[in-house]
Amino acid sequence: MTETEIPEDHPRYASLVTRHRIEAGVEKGITSKQGLIAQGRGEAFDYLLGERTLPSADDAARAAAATLLLADHPVISVNGNVAALAPAETVDLAEAVDADLEVNLFNHTDERVRRIADHLREHGADEVKGLAGDGEIPGLDHARGVVDADGIEAADVVVVPLEDGDRAAALDAMGKTEIVVDLNPGSRSPRTADVPIIDNLLRAVSNVTAHAKDLADATPDELERTVEEFDADAALDAAEAAIRDGSFADGDGK
Question: Both ends of the chain: CA-CA distance in Å?
Answer without folding.
Answer: 18
